[in-house]
Inverse folding.
């Protein structure tokens, strides 16, 4: 929990990883390129005092994770969202077994979400059923830009993706987290396109689709589909640290999300170990929309509390102390929310 | 070098300088960020060697990450090769993309002039034309929103619902209007003074009740492009030390911190 100015915030870090990108685990040059790309994100967007060395960044281990999140980081509960990346790392990038073990040992603090790749076909479905029986997860993380044989990405609207969603439905896996990386198939179209999420969300209305990175770099396409599909949510992984380097951009991102999705469908995450939660939480609680951006209403404390934890807690059934709970906003299920609150936006 | 007296026309035709190459590359646009690659700092090096039969040019490109989308990477690299090859005095061109996960594939395709489909084989279906159009439309949408939001901010009396009838002649002259006219021209939209500003990519205006939503959607597009443009610039500076000196300032979406990276260009001399 984080407390400031008499307000208490229940914190759910909805997107974390336990990764191993050390050279001995890199399968090829792409393993190095991938972690270097993450490290440049980290260096570019972090305040100087929050920057890690490259060696620290390659691997953290469970003990360090527990300290960064729960001792230093104010986090009440965190959710693993593994990206396997077997084409780049010998034992995978996300350390699936280690993360599951850590979550099993700390069930009050950690939730383990699994991952799968629909291109594994029938065999993968068997594997998913077996994994679910063993681990009992409520959510999965899908990285659509994962490389697999001569395929370098898939779409959520592919027939096999649908077969897997049907299986998720049967098994009670309700929360589908999606990271739209640069998906290279077919290469003719925009690799970051999120239109396939729209198809899947319309056809599986009983599943939640949480688009990580709020669709960045296609914020506009994400907002447009999310405003029409009540079961599409936005995860703030990678968007949060813009508070530091690009506060006006961050204000616009959060302003757009509140406008198009409303305050009940946005989830905080540090994207650990890309960043650590402590400074992000402190700064978000202090954050406010700049005065001259009259197209957005100021962020309320209620909105911050929901984003920082209550929204993800509700989705995952994580217990929240009664005095910290808040009711849902009385908002429309689809279409823009609270347009009258901003003075460039309509009724004046 | 000794100045030679000769036919100046012939001489300019045969001599190609690094500056000529750079100027040719100004025509190559990053479609996603809607800016020339020369402004973004994507040119890593230019080498020109003059031999008997014409100049041999080698250009290296660099991008903000190894995982930038390979279709955009290929477009910029192949457009670069085309732009340089079009210079009359150039005999041979090598364009290479450095440090990308598809560098080997793309560089081999460029060297063999294999084209898009010949380079990417089963991953390519038809062409990258539709991709270009998608981002030309987005660029127009963003340019349109900048002009109309400027208008709204400048005049508190104006209502958002009135933005559907604003015409090009109502926009004040300046950078944003110039940019809008260029984007309209790229889409083949009319540039006459009485043309409606808020139109879709086919040039159709919006009915009054749809105007606020059209403007709001356009705003999210503008925010996205500006945000991506600055993030990509920042990542390039992080990845390649000193590359900030090769980037021009982008006022759209700029923030206080951006000025640090551009100090050498920004500092004015103070005369007391």
């Amino acid at each position: 929990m984080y407390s400031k100015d008499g307000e208490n915030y229940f914190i759910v870090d909805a997107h974390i990883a336990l990764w191993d990108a050390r050279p001995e685990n890199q399968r090829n040059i792409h393993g190095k390129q991938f972690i270097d790309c993450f490290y440049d994100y980290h260096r570019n967007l972090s305040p100087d005092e929050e920057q890690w060395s490259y060696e620290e960044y390659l691997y953290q281990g469970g003990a360090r994770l527990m300290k960064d999140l729960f001792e230093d980081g104010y986090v009440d509960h965190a959710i693993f969202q593994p990206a396997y990346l077997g084409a780049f790392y010998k034992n995978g990038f996300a350390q699936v077994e280690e993360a599951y073990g850590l979550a099993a040992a700390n069930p009050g603090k950690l939730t383990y979400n699994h991952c799968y790749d629909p291109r594994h076909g029938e065999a993968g479905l068997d594997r998913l059923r077996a994994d679910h029986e063993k681990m009992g997860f409520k959510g999965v993380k899908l990285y659509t830009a994962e490389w697999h044989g001569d395929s370098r990405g898939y779409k959520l609207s592919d027939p096999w993706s649908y077969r897997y969603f049907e299986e998720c439905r049967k098994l009670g896996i309700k929360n589908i987290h999606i990271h739209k990386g640069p998906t290279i198939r077919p290469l003719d179209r925009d690799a970051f396109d999120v239109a396939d999420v729209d198809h899947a969300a319309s056809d599986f209305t009983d599943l939640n689709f949480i688009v990580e990175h709020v669709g960045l770099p296609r914020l506009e396409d994400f907002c447009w589909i999310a405003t029409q599909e009540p079961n599409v949510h936005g995860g703030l992984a990678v968007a949060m640290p813009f508070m530091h380097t690009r506060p006006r951009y961050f204000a616009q991102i959060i302003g757009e999300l509140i406008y198009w999705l409303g305050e009940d469908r946005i989830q905080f995450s540090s994207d650990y170990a890309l960043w650590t939660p402590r400074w992000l939480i402190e700064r978000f609680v202090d954050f406010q929309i700049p005065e001259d951006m009259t197209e957005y209403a100021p962020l309320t404390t209620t909105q911050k509390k929901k984003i920082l934890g209550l929204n993800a807690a509700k989705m995952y059934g994580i217990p929240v102390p009664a005095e910290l709970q808040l009711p849902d906003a009385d908002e429309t299920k689809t279409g823009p929310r609270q347009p009258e609150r901003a003075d460039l936006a309509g009724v004046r | 070098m000794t100045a030679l007296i000769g036919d100046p026309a012939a001489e300019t035709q045969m001599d190609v300088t690094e500056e000529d190459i750079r100027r040719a590359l100004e025509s190559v646009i990053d479609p996603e960020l809607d800016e020339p690659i020369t402004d973004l700092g994507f040119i890593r090096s230019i080498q020109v060697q003059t031999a008997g039969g014409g100049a041999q040019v080698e250009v290296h490109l660099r991008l903000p990450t190894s995982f930038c989308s390979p279709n955009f990477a290929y477009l910029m690299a192949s457009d670069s090769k085309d732009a340089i090859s079009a210079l009359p005095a150039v005999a041979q061109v090598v364009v290479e993309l450095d440090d990308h996960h598809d560098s080997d594939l793309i560089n081999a395709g460029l060297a063999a002039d294999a084209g898009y489909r010949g380079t990417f084989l089963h991953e390519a279906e038809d062409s990258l034309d539709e991709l270009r159009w998608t981002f030309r439309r987005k660029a127009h949408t963003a340019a349109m929103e900048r002009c109309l939001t400027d208008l709204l901010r400048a005049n508190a009396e104006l209502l958002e619902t009135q933005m559907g009838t604003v015409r090009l002649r109502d926009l004040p002259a300046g950078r944003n209007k110039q940019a809008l006219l260029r984007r309209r021209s790229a889409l083949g939209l009319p540039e006459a003074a009485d043309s409606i500003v808020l139109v879709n990519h086919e040039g159709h205006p919006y009915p009054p009740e749809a105007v606020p939503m059209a403007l709001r959607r356009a705003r999210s597009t503008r925010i996205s492009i500006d945000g991506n443009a600055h993030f990509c610039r920042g990542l390039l500076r992080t990845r390649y030390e000193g590359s900030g000196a090769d980037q021009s300032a982008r006022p759209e979406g700029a923030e206080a911190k951006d000025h640090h990276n551009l100090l050498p260009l920004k500092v004015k001399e103070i005369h007391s």
Remarks:
- The mean pLDDT of chain A is 94.
- The first strand of chain A starts at residue 2 and ends at 4.
- Chain A touches chain B through 48 residues (CB under 8 Å).
